[in-house]
């Protein structure tokens, strides 16, 4: 059971948040200001949820003073600048008021899960641009992958990585190499499907001058270039049978012979192979050598498809979106609630690679500060989201009939739209409760935005 500290000066919002979180098995404490929060020793909690604007010091002051406990900032103001500034100061995330219950619970669960798994963090990977970042995702299937990587990396054995296209097989190969004793030596990555069949042997094993037409100079092969390091052969199921025989000799004897040469050369190479095909089935049809399959399959790592990683999809999307925003200089861009639902429910036949492309498209096409489903360019998901039964006890988010349109509005526009649409049917108390604010705050916002109260019809005295 996680301990959460809510820092909010409006009692009605604080109480609503407390009831919501306690219904989901969290232990909750409350404070009305930064000073009250500090008196409760926030370092003893698992998460601090704080309003941005508080009496006295702002909620962002808790970011440093509660460290290393993560701080989730709430804001009820339309300005994106304050929320982005909170993230820059180190807030783990922010949620907008009036908040969507499901979205808030999802954010809290994600932050707490990240904290709980810090002791067994995913392996770091150095990308081609030199930046290091951990592999993304903490679902049970990925935890098995991380364990296999940690155990196999230092063992210096051949590894076969299996998974659909776009699941991140090269990331696994990089993690294996970087955690091995060969990390200081080169990692040579080869996509066997991208090299013409007539050239693959020359590319892998090299050739002597004049070995064939067009061989005007001797060439060192990629296997020899990986000497002392790691050779990653992606899509190894596409390797021609002749090249398979040569590769088998490398694995058995540690020797290569260039095309056109009579001399052999010893090489010390660790091989990591990857494929989306069933090599054992291919060996039965004669398309893949069975003896090579057994040589490759010393340690097997199976990567789950993205549709099998429900708990990770939105986390992966957030990380990829942040990268895309940096590339296109559009920091602060976020996914709308409707876009997040689309991402969660889409089947992702192209896996993480397809998700990355969709988010890149969204960053380019988005016109406001939110990315909407149309910006992602995805076909309709085959399994539309269905509201779970029994949710009547929790108040639904305002204007739930048109969530995609509501996402287009700023928070102030949202407030004005909601009040004008519902004030005929609701009292001031009901409006305030639905918006998660006090009646006093509702009145003040009416004054600021120029929204008159609906006059009650006079009762007939006749």
Write structural notes for this entry.
There is one protein chain. The protein is α/β, with parallel strands linked by helices and 462 residues long. The protein is built from 20 helices and 16 strands. It has helices at 11-23, 34-39, 61-65, 80-88, 101-116, 140-152, 169-178, 200-205, 222-225, 241-253, 279-284, 290-296, 313-327, 337-345, 351-365, 373-376, 403-406, 411-422, 428-435, 439-449; strands spanning 3-7, 27-31, 47-51, 71-75, 93-96, 124-126, 132-134, 159-162, 187-191, 230-234, 255-256, 265-266, 270-275, 299-302, 334-335, 370-371. The strands form five sheets. The protein has a five-stranded parallel sheet with strand order 2-1-3-4-5, with helices on both faces. The longest helix has 16 residues, at 101-116. Mean pLDDT is 83; it is low at 381-410 and 458-462.
Quick structural summary:
This protein is of the alpha/beta class and 462 residues long.
């Amino acid at each position: 059971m996680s301990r959460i500290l809510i820092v909010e000066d409006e009692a009605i919002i604080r109480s609503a948040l407390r009831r919501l979180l306690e219904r989901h098995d969290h232990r909750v404490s409350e404070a009305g200001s930064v000073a009250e929060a500090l008196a409760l020793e926030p370092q003893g909690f698992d998460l601090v949820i704080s309003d941005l604007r508080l009496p006295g010091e702002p909620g962002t002051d808790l970011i440093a003073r509660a460290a290393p406990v993560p701080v989730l900032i709430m804001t009820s103001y339309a300005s994106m600048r304050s929320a982005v500034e909170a993230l820059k100061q180190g807030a783990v995330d922010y949620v907008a008021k009036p908040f969507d219950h499901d979205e808030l619970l999802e954010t809290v669960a994600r932050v707490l899960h990240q904290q709980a798994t810090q002791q067994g963090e995913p392996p770091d990977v150095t990308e081609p641009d030199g930046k290091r970042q951990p592999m993304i995702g903490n679902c049970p299937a990925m935890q098995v992958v991380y364990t296999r990587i940690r155990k196999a990396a230092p063992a210096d054995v051949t590894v076969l990585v299996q998974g659909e296209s776009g699941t991140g097989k090269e990331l696994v190969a990089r993690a294996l190499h970087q955690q091995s004793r060969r990390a200081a030596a080169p990692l040579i990555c080869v996509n066997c499907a991208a090299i013409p069949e007539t050239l693959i042997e020359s590319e892998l094993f090299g050739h002597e001058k004049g070995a064939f037409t067009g061989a005007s100079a001797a060439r060192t092969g990629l296997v020899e270039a990986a000497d002392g390091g790691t050779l990653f052969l992606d899509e190894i199921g596409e390797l021609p049978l002749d090249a398979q025989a040569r590769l088998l000799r490398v694995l058995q004897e540690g020797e290569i012979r260039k095309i056109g040469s009579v001399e052999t050369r010893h090489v010390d190479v660790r091989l990591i192979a990857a494929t989306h095909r069933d090599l054992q089935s291919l060996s039965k049809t004669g398309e893949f050598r069975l003896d090579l399959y057994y040589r490759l399959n010393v340690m097997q790592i199976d990567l789950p498809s993205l549709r099998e990683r429900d708990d990770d999809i939105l986390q992966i999307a957030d990380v990829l979106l942040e990268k895309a925003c940096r590339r296109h200089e559009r920091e602060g861009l976020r996914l709308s609630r409707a876009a997040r639902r689309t991402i969660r429910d889409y089947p992702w036949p192209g896996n993480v690679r397809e998700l990355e492309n969709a988010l890149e498209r969204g960053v380019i096409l988005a016109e406001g500060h939110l990315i909407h489903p149309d910006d992602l360019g995805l076909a309709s998901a085959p399994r539309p989201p269905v509201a779970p039964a029994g949710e009547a006890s929790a108040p639904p988010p305002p204007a739930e009939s048109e969530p995609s349109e509501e996402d287009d509005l700023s928070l102030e526009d949202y407030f004005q739209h909601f009040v004008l649409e519902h004030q005929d049917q609701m009292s001031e108390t009901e409006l305030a409760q639905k918006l998660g604010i006090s009646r006093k705050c509702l009145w003040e916002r009416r004054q600021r935005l120029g929204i008159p109260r609906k006059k009650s019809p006079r009762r007939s005295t006749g």
